[in-house]
Amino acid sequence: MACLPFLKQSPAGRIILMSSITGPVTGYPGLAHYGASKAGMDGFMRTAAIAAAPFGITVNAVAPGSISTEGLAGLGAQAIEAMEALIPLKRLGQPADVAGAVLYLASDLASFVTGQSLVVDGGQTLPEIPG
Amino acid sequence: MGYRIASDLAGAGARVFAVDLKQPPAPDPHGPARSVTHWQFDVTDEERVARALAEVDAACGRLDYVVNAAGVGWFDRDGPVATIDREVWQRVLDVNLTAAMLVCRHALPLVQRTGGGAFVHIASVAGLRSADDPMDAYQVSKAGLISLSRALALQYGPLGIRSNTICPGAILTPMIQPLYDADPARAERMAARTPLRRLGTVADVSSACQFLLSDEASFITGTDLVVDGGWTLALA
Per CATH, which fold does A12-120 belong to? Predict the structure, then answer.
């Protein structure tokens, strides 16, 4: 809400939300609050996209999977290996991977993309049966 | 759409081989030279597809990117399952889905040998939702293509091969131009129903394709990038 007046003045306003696969796509024990907040954010994103569209402002989200951050590194090598095994691309994502998606959505190249959540998860949510 | 994608990829420095049933448009004499080899054959012909990939191998010894953009949308012949001609149903599935499978089947060994790569398949929002003017063969073929992409993504992810689809909404292309020629107010009506108040362009789809093939998308696989100006999220 605070940014809208400024975004309206821009020829190509962009709102990009940081979502997650946890909540919108998957469940994870202990993360009911996190999951609910992300799924809720996606719902907000879709309505905001429609409301902002008349001003040429696009509203999208990036939904990362398992990204290598300091928090994740703290879980130890074995836990990381277990996570990598579940990902078709066989590696954790890097912050640069998330940044790449954000940059695309922010650019003129994505001016016809709105209300979308771009999943950046190395294929983690693909399998019929997890694990 | 395929021409624009091929041309833009060549402009970005790629060596491009393109297939279509029709003659390619004459290259712009004032534009930059584009390294695009145009082949003219029916992509449902498996033997021709296999030969084409062998020629790519002979010419370059590698294959990094595959874009499945061939598709038909027969507004006058496609329709509801209740009345659609069996031959029309089969032909639409053959061109939009089976041909993509054949290209993947024959391209994968070379992409594997290259050490990895990326596929993009041009599907449609029709594959995610349901068309109000029924084109059942078309929407089923596009839904199938979305699933084919996921199969590739899961099986070949460990080999460093990614696969994604682009799901365009209404994009002004030669394929749908006849609809707009027959009904001049159609463009306005479609734009009015689009939150971003315009039709899509081949540039919108081409830039999405470039992004998905690029290193910026190297952790993106098995997804569907919807490029529809907000069509599929508006209720009315």
Answer: Rossmann fold (3.40.50)
